[in-house]
Write a structure and sequence with these properties.
The chain is mainly alpha-helical. It contains 15 helices and four strands. Helix 1 runs antiparallel to helix 14 and helix 3 crosses helix 9.
């Protein structure tokens, strides 16, 4: 499945039997958690929604006193946290179907809309389907670099890659707009593989959703504060930027720090459930932090667990993580985790390194894993 650079001791070889055992144990973990879902999970999501709405109301109210700097800053802070919660712990997770079991109409993954410019139906296709099905498979998972970044050594280098860190910074600042445009596959339009006519319906949906968001944040709510129009507009703009910076950072820490592995189409062809699980564990990374940090990240600080169980309520990931980690240790698999500073530093270090032509930098030499598949044992002499 994934054959990467060998260490001096050689790569880890994961047998077919080990892969099948991993699959069985993770299936059992899923079944236990699913059977246990109930009142405490309902109370959790309702509590988060109540907090998010309270923060938004508080932020809007504080901006009526926005002519006083402390109130303006407090309003921006409240709105920023509100938007982060809406985007991460509520929107992202609801649209994964994590709360469909509640049969609550407002938490239905198929109709939910979030407070960002990307239409939910387009996000569900580009993220739920494309990314979570083909996680870290080169030329299939378009989240590898988002069409503009070089985040893996297997991606070809050209002179345009010299702008890698700048492109990443621009994407970070305007992340909600980058997510909105993701499903358009602009890079394929530029290469002539698609035409603008091919994405006409997508553009129409984006225009409607982005138009409503711009009207709400930059016209209606500022107008409601009368003479403080510009002050409120600036506050809303700042809150959106803060949300973008945070979201980008959490997502990139979960997908692109050192040690995260990528795969080829052939390595993943006709993979079993166990092989799919292993790919998710090797292609994701966690971030260590406090309970509040995990909530603010939408529990995507447990990216490994999220990729294994994207449709299970994210509040369960912290209690599942020790079992997943123990399973990795049992089979010698890496469990990529670290503090936020370590992971984000690794991401930006990689973005700068991969901007340079390959002859100027050394291959990472990171340890790899060989995942054996039926009929391949003789290929490695085992």
């Amino acid at each position: 499945m994934a054959i990467l650079t060998e260490t001096p001791e050689g790569p880890l070889v994961l047998s077919v039997e080990q892969v099948e055992e991993i699959g069985r144990e993770l299936d059992a973990l899923r079944a236990r958690v699913t059977a246990d879902l109930g009142d405490r999970d309902r109370e959790y999501i309702y509590k988060v929604i109540k907090a998010q709405r309270g923060l938004e109301i508080a932020g809007r109210g504080l901006l009526y006193l926005g002519f006083l700097p402390p109130f303006w800053l407090a309003g921006v802070a409240a709105l920023s946290v509100s938007k982060i919660l809406d985007n991460m712990e509520i929107g992202h997770n609801v649209m994964h179907g994590q709360w469909d079991w509640m049969r609550e109409p407002t938490l239905n993954s198929r109709v939910f809309e979030w407070d960002t410019v990307c239409p939910s139906d387009q996000w569900r296709h580009s993220h739920n389907y494309m990314h979570h099905t083909y996680t870290n498979i080169l030329d299939m998972d378009r989240d590898i670099g988002y069409g503009i970044l070089r985040v893996d050594e297997a991606q070809p280098w050209n002179p345009l890659r010299l702008g890698n860190p700048l492109y990443a910074f621009m994407l970070m600042v305007a992340f909600e707009w980058g997510v909105m445009g993701h499903d358009l596959e602009v890079e394929n339009i530029v290469r002539g593989k698609k035409s603008w006519a091919d994405v006409k319906a997508l553009l129409a949906g984006q225009s409607r959703k982005a138009g409503r968001q711009v009207l709400k944040d930059y016209v209606v709510f500022p107008a409601l504060t009368g003479p403080l129009f510009l002050s409120t507009l600036a506050a809303n703009f700042t809150a959106n930027i803060v949300r973008n910076l945070w979201t980008f950072s959490i997502i990139f820490c979960g997908h692109f720090p050192s040690g995260v592995q990528t795969f080829t189409k052939d390595e993943c062809a006709e993979e079993t459930q166990g092989e799919w699980y292993v790919r998710q564990m090797l292609g994701s990374a966690n971030i260590q932090g406090s309970k509040l940090f995990h909530v603010m990240s939408g529990n995507l600080s447990h990216q490994i667990e999220h990729h294994l169980f994207p449709d299970l309520p994210a509040n369960r990931y912290p209690e599942m993580a020790p079992e997943v980690r123990a399973l990795c240790e049992k089979h010698g698999l890496p469990y990529n985790t670290g503090g936020f500073a370590k992971q984000i530093g690794s991401v930006w270090g990689k973005l700068f390194k991969l901007a340079l032509p390959p002859f100027l930098v050394k291959n990472s030499g990171e340890a790899g894993v060989i995942v054996m598949r039926r009929g391949q044992a003789s290929e490695v002499g085992v």
